[in-house]
Amino acid sequence: MKRLSKKTITTLDNLYNFVELFVAYILLASAIGLVIFAIYEIFDEFLHHSDTIKAVITLIHHILLIMIILEILWTIINYMKTKKLSVEAFIIIGIISSIRKMLVLGASASTKTEITYKFVSVITSEMLFQAFIVLILVVSIFILRKSRLYLKEIGEE
Fold this sequence. Notes:
The protein is mainly α. About 90% of the residues lie in helices and about 0% in strands.
């Protein structure tokens, strides 16, 4: 197999950096757009429907989605600076996503007028599953941070 020239490698590296930057700008624009959309949707909900619970749930839903986007953006920016990928950032994204799912499930359960045993069973099992995922991810962060401290202690000796 023929080896790539330095010029080809440099071109591919520059293209990769451009794509990273482009994705970062798209994420930033998405977060800003979602903030504007969330504000519009909340005002619209209060003005036309006056369903406070639904408006608050919608607001929380959007805020958590914005947090996920910003966490991904921070991960990309951090990677562009250091060329090191942070596992902890992806674990945090998973925690936020699971909590968001739990809130959406809880909100849909609270707004249901007719609740059946099957519906309660499905919602409960899904909520327990999401809670289990959060627990596993929190334990993962704990282990990750403890291992970093342990490795620092070993390095200092």
